[in-house]
Design goal:
Number of helices of chain A: 0
Order of helices and strands of chain A: EEEEEEEEEEEE
Number of strands of chain B: 11
Number of helices of chain B: 0
Largest interface: A-B, 28 and 31 residues
Strand content of chain A: over 45%
Order of helices and strands of chain B: EEEEEEEEEEE
Structural class of chain B: mainly beta
Radius of gyration of chain A: 14 Å
Distance between the termini of chain B: 31 Å
Distance between the termini of chain A: 41 Å
Largest sheet of chain A: 6 strands, mixed
Oligomer: heterodimer
Largest sheet of chain B: 7 strands, mixed
Number of strands of chain A: 12
Radius of gyration of chain B: 13 Å
Shape of chain A: globular
Structural class of chain A: mainly beta
Helix content of chain B: under 10%
Shape of chain B: globular
Chain lengths: ~120, ~120
């Protein structure tokens, strides 16, 4: 069975600090997809990024960057120069294809609560 | 705004009652997913429909059922409600089914409180 582990339950930083959120996954699939979602205090889930298993190039989008390492089954997320608006719960997720029915689903980690203070 | 709509936003009801949650996917998306978010279980996949057909099932209770209508909107029916069913219920949509690469876009959720 697939599994996603986010060992950091809560992280507190001061504005402008860099912060890294860890994600470790388990899967038997050779091709798979990983995702990060953000859940701000308002409650909605916002898609941030998708990464496939055969592309280990790191990705940067503004202050956000992602480090995918297949050898350690990790997909870590770094926010550079954090801001108060980054305060949210961040979820890492792994996509699973359900062969029997032709469906698919996301398996989520337990999330990391990030608090950015002034 | 993801383009996925869910109604109602909040729902307060009593134990033993039945409720219906509604979801409209993004324009062009044929797949609808339902997830439950609770403090003790986290974010859990319940069920997926694609173009009206059930495609995947998670840890969905027998008291819960869902369907997707010809106009692609979906409803999640929860019956014989218990206190433990209190949670945030999300609907998500994606273009296709059976492909792990497609990101799912989530609606704002329906917060269900069972008293």
């Amino acid at each position: 069975a697939q599994k996603v582990t986010q060992a950091q339950t809560e992280i507190s930083v001061v504005e402008k600090e860099d912060v890294t959120l860890d994600c470790v996954y388990e899967t038997r699939d050779t091709t798979y997809y990983l995702f990060w979602y953000k859940q701000p205090p308002s409650g909605e889930l916002v898609f941030l990024i998708r990464r496939n298993s055969f592309d280990e190039q790191n990705e940067i989008s503004g202050r956000y960057s992602w480090n995918f390492q297949k050898s350690t089954s990790s997909f870590n997320f770094t926010i550079t120069a954090s801001q108060v608006v980054d305060s949210a719960v961040y979820f890492c997720a792994l996509s699973e294809v359900i062969l029997t029915g032709g469906g698919n689903k996301l398996t989520f980690g337990t999330g990391t609560q990030l608090k950015v203070e002034l | 705004d993801s383009g996925v709509t869910q109604t109602p936003k909040h729902l307060i009801t009593a134990t033993g009652q039945r409720v219906t949650l509604r979801c409209s996917p993004r324009s062009g998306d044929l797949s609808v997913y339902w997830y439950q978010q609770s403090l003790d279980q986290g974010l859990q996949f319940l069920i997926q429909y694609y173009n009206g057909e059930e495609r995947a099932k998670g840890n969905i209770l027998e008291r819960f059922s869902a369907q997707q209508f010809p106009d692609l909107h979906s409803e999640l029916n929860l019956s014989s409600l218990e206190l433990g069913d209190s949670a945030l219920y999300f609907c998500a949509s994606s273009v296709v089914s059976g492909q792990g690469k497609n990101e799912q876009f989530f609606g704002p959720g329906t917060r269900l409180t069972v008293l």
